[in-house]
Amino acid sequence: MTTTILWFRQDLRLADNPALNEATAAGPVVAVYILDDAAAGAWRHGAAQRWWLHHSLASLAEGLRARGVELVLLRGDAVALLTGLAATLGASAIHAGRLYEPWARARDAALAQALPESCRLVLHTSGLLHEPHRIRTGQGRPYMVYTPFSRAIFALGEPAPALEAPARLAAAAPPPGLALEALELLPRRDWASGFPSHWQPGEAGAARRMAGFGPGGLAGYDDFRNLPGRVLGTSGLSPHLRFGEVSPRQLWHAARAAGAAGPHTWLKEILWREFSYHLLWHRPEMTDTALQPGFANFPWQPDARLLRAWQLGQTGYPIIDAGMRQLWATGWMHNRVRMVVASFLVKHLLQPWQDGAAWFWDTLVDGDLASNSASWQWVAGCGADAAPYFRVFNPVLQGEKFDADGAYVRAWVPEVAGLPAKLLHQPWAAPNPPRGYPAPIIEHAAGRARALAAYATLKAAA
Question: Stretch 161-180: mean pLDDT, rounded?
Answer without folding.
Answer: 96
